[in-house]
Amino acid sequence: MGSFLRDKDNLEWEDAIDRLKTETIEKLKLSYDDLEEDYKEIFLDAACILKGWTKDAAVIALKSCGFPARKGLTVLELKSLITISKHGELDMHDHIEEMGKNIVRRVNPNKPEMHSRLWIEEEIVDILAKSSGNQATKCIRLNAYGLNFEILMNGLANMKELRFLNVCNRHVYRSDVSNWNFDEDSLHLPDALRFLSWSCYPFSSLPKTFQANNLVGLEMDDSNIIQLWKDGKEKALKLRFLKFRLSQFRTLDLSVAPNLETLTLERCDNLEEGHFQVTPNLKKLCIDRCYKLKKLHMPPESPKLKSLNLLENSKLTTLHLGKTPNLETLNLYRCADMVELRMPAESPKLRSLNIDRSKLTTLHLGETPNLETLILQECTRMVELCMPAECPKLVTLDLYNLELRTLHLGISPNLVKVRLQDSPMVELHMPAECPKLVNLDLSFLRLTTLRLENTPSLETLNLQRCTEMVELAECPKLVNLKLFDLNLTTPHIRQILTKCRKLVNLDLSFLDLMTLRLGINPNLEKLSVNNCTDMVELHIATDCPKLVTLNLDYNVKLRTLDLGLTPYLERLGLYRCYDLEEINASAECLKKLIHLNISNCGRFKYFKFDKEAPKDLYRLEYLEELHLRSADIKNLPDSLCMLKHLKSLEINSCRLLEKLPEDIGRLQCLKKLIVKDCKILRDIPNSICEMDHLECLDLTYCTRIEELPEEIGRLECLKELDIRGTGITRLPKSIYQLKGLCIKGRSDDREDWHKR
C-alpha cells in the first residue's frame, strides 16, 4: 500500500485508510458472528454502554439483565473482543468498539429511536423531547447535566422494553425540587427495567407508577432518596443487587426486597438504623463510612451470607451474627465504639477475620476449621482471645496492640506468618510443631524466654524491644534477625550468631555490648548495630563477602572499627560515633563504597588501608554520597577532589572549617553540594563553576559568605540555590542566564533582588 500511495495527495491517503479500516472491521466481525446470541448481546452492551466500567460492576449490570455475565465476558476475552485492564476495567480496541456500535446503528442508521442501545447525548435528548421513544430501545446511557427533568421523565414513558438505564446528572437539593411543578409521581419509568443506575436522583422515593416487578439491580449515587416507595407497600421481589452511596435515608427496611443478594451502603451520612431481618438470600453486605449508624438488625439466620464488611461505622456498638454457616469473610474496620461481637458457635467456612480499632474486650472464635487469616489490630481493650484447639488451615496471625497477657496457639500446622506486636504478653504457647512458619514478629512483648526448636523453616525473627528476654534458642535457617534492645549477654549473642550461618539481614541495635566480633557470615548483606552506647570495638570476620550495608550510628564510644574483608560494601553509616579515630580496611575494602556518613565523628582522622595510614580518600573511588559533620574539622583533604563518582557532598555544622579545597570543581559528577552552618567559612572557590552537573547548591547559615563566584552562570544544570542566613546581598549578573533557577534567600532581601 505504501508504494501504491506514493506521491498521492491527502484525500487519496484518507480514502485508502478509510477502506482499510472498513476491511479490518469486517474481518473482526467474523469473531462476533460466531458468538451465541447471549454473548452477542453482552458484547454490544460492552461496546456501547459498559466500556470503562469495572468488571465487577459490569457483571452486576449484565446479571441483572438476565445474561450469563462472567462466562460471557470470559468468552469475549478469549476471542480478544474485550480486555480487562490492570485496574479491573472493561476495555477494547477502538476499532472493535466502533464495530459494535456500527452493528447497533446499521439497521435504520438515520433513526436512532429505532436503535437497541442509545449512548449519544444529542440523540437521546432529541428522542426524549419529541417523545419518539419506542419498544426498540433496550439500553440507555445518558449524561443529563443540562437536560430538563420534565422532558426526561415524560420521554421515558414510551420505551416499554427498556431493560437498562444509566443516568448521570448534577446534584439537585431537595429545597429546589420542592419548587418544581412536578414530582416523582410524574416520572414514568418503564416497568420492564431490570437495571437502574441513577447518579444524583432528585426525588425522595421511586415513583408510584413504577412497578418494579422486573427490577434486579438498583444503584443510587448522591441521591435525595429517603425510602424506596412512599407508602412502603411496594415489593421488589426480583431485586438482587442494591447499592446506595451518599443517600439521605435515616432507616433502611429491606423487607421490600426479600430476595436481595448484595447490599452496599457507602457514606450514607444520615443512616442510623438498618433492618435486615428478612433477607434470607443475602450473600454480601458492605456498610462503609455510615458514621451515624448505631443499630444493625441482622436476621437470626443468614444461610447464604458469604461476606460481611463493616468499615468505619464509628457509632455501631454491637453485632449479633446469628447462624452464618457460609460466612467466608468478616471485616470490622474502625468500628471504634463496638463493644460486643457475638460470633456463631460454628463458622465452618470462615476464612478471613479482620477487626481493627474496636472496644471489644474478649473474642471467642468458636469452631473455625477453615480460618486462614486472623487480624486483630489496635483493639486496645482486648484482654482475652480464645483460639480454637485446632486451626488446621491458619496461615497468617496478626495481633497488634492488644492487652493480651497470655496466648495459647492450638494445632496450626500451616502457619506461615505470625505478628504478635506491642502487647503486655508474658506467656506465649507456640504450637507443638510449626513446620511452615517463616516469619515471626514478637516486637514489644514482655516474654523472658522463647523456644523455637519446632520451627525448622523460620527465616525472619523480630524481637525488637523485648526488653525482658534473657533466653533465646538458636534457629539455624534464619535469614533475617532483629535483636533490638534485648537483655541478652554478649556470649549468648555470639552463640546465636555462630549457629545462624544463613543470615542476610541482622539488627543488633540498642544492646549492652562492649565488643562485637562477628564470625563467618557468608550471606550477610545488611548489618545494623546502632545505639550500642557502651561498644568500643567492632571486628568483622575476615570473610563477609556479601556485606553491602553497615549501619553503626550513635555508637558514641566506638574507637576501633575493623572491616575485615568486605569487598562489596556500598553504604557505611557512622553518624555520631564521637570517639571513632580510625577505620581498618584491606586494600580491596571500600572500593565500591557509595554512601559514607561520618558526621559528628569529631576524632576521626583517617582510614587505614593494609596496615598503612594515608589520609587520602581517593581509594573510595566509587563513593557517591559523603556526609561530614564535626565541630573539629578545619580543613578538608585535597584527596576529596579525587572522588570522581561523588554525586552528593554534605558538609554540615563544621564551624571551624576555614575553606573548601581550591580544586573542588574537579568533582564533575557532583549534583548536590550542601555547606550548612559553617560559621567562619568565607569563600566559595571559583572552580565550583566547572561542575557541569551541579543541580543544588545550599549555603544556608554560612554567615560570613558575602559573595558568589562571578561566573556562576556557567552552572547550566543548577535548579536550586539556597543562600538563607548568608551575608550575600548581591547576585552575580551571570546568574540571570540560568533558566528555571529557584533562589531561596532571606525574606527581607527578596524584594531587593527582584528589583536588581
In words, what does this structure look like?
- Residues 37-107 form the Disease resistance protein Roq1-like winged-helix domain.
- It comes from Artemisia annua.
- Pfam families: WHD_ROQ1.
- It is a single chain.
- The protein is α/β, with parallel strands linked by helices and 756 residues long.
- It folds into six domains: 10-106, Arc Repressor Mutant, subunit A, CATH 1.10.10; 112-238; 250-357; 387-503; 525-612; 624-755, Leucine-rich repeat, LRR (right-handed beta-alpha superhelix), CATH 3.80.10.
- The protein is 15% helix and 22% strand.
- The chain is built from ten helices and 46 strands.
- The protein has a 28-stranded parallel beta sheet.
- Helix 9 (490-499) links the parallel strand 30 and strand 31.
- The longest helix has 24 residues, at 10-33.
- It is globular and about 90 Å long.
- Mean pLDDT is 88; it is low at 610-614 and 746-756.
Count of alpha and pi helical runs: 10
The overall pLDDT average reads: 88
As a percent range, the share of helical residues equals: 10-25%
Largest sheet: 28 strands, parallel
Name the CATH architecture of the largest domain: Alpha-Beta Horseshoe
What amount of the residues lies in strands? 15-25%
**Assembly context of the chains:** single chain
> Tell me, what is the CATH class of the largest domain?
Alpha Beta
- What's the count of strands? 46
Radius of gyration: 36 Å
Count up the domains: 6
Contiguous uncertain segments of 5+ residues = 610-614, 746-756
| Termini separation | 63 Å
Structural class: alpha/beta
In the CATH hierarchy, what is the superfamily of the largest domain? Ribonuclease Inhibitor
Q: What is the approximate shape? A: globular
CATH topology of the largest domain: Leucine-rich repeat, LRR (right-handed beta-alpha superhelix)
Domain Disease resistance protein Roq1-like winged-helix: 37-107
Keywords: Repeat
Organism: Artemisia annua (Sweet wormwood)
InterPro entries: Disease_R_plants (IPR044974), LRR_dom_sf (IPR032675), WH_DNA-bd_sf (IPR036390), WHD_ROQ1-like (IPR058192)
